[in-house]
Hints:
- By secondary structure, the chain is α/β, with parallel strands linked by helices.
- The chain is 37% helix and 20% strand.
- The protein has nine helices and eleven strands.
- The longest helix is centred in the N-terminal third of the chain and has 18 residues, at 5-22.
Amino acid sequence: MSLPDSFKFILLFLVLLSSQTIYAKxxxxxxxxxxxxxxxxxxxxxxxxxxDGVFQYLPQYKVNYRYMVSNARLTVELNxxxxxxxxxxxxxxxxxGCLTDPVFRFTDVAITLRKNxxxxxxxxxxxxxxxxxxxxxxxxxxxxxSQLVQANQYYQEVARPExxxxxxxxxxxxxxxxxxxxxLHSLKAWQKDNYQPNSLKVHAIFPPVYxxxxxxxxxxxxxxNLALTKYKNSGQYQKTYNRFLESLGLKKELLELNSxxxx
Length: 263
């Protein structure tokens, strides 16, 4: 007795699906080690979610991850070919392979306490304010910022993000400057139940900075770039950033800080 056509179709679909799974190419991508952009396995990770979203459009690959690799080791692992990819690479000069289109967005902002009613719409309005920022920010946030802080006796850089959160919320500085996601994550980890992100005011005065994934094979870069375009066009790229910002407790009216219309 012959099989019904509908059953044949289902059987063919299952065969194709299983063959695709069997023949998917295994690749390993090394991830960075700073939260919440990267995290330990099974922990919330913004940039890993971005990678996972892109690879939904690349079923020919099965992605494995090497978690919490230092920035210094990422490119070493890639260049030694112990991994096929490394996330959070800023320059093609660092690697022997290829660099994808920009993938990961850093959103450096100035953060103040809302109750102090600081009005900061440009870098020049940071003048004469006490400022804390991350290490090397003076050299990374542009010439205007560098010149301003060199003349500011109240400027300091600290090694750990939680130090910025403590100094600002303890009112020992006027302004904290750094990535909004990293700041809010540090504040949440430190203050726990007393965490109140909406007591902050966020000033978007810096352009975004992007990093990419480095791959050893050019075909991987090309496939990833095509899938990244599809992922962005679907709207899910921006939704991932928004979802993380909301999970860190910031009011929805500040989500436009991460909208592509600002970039």
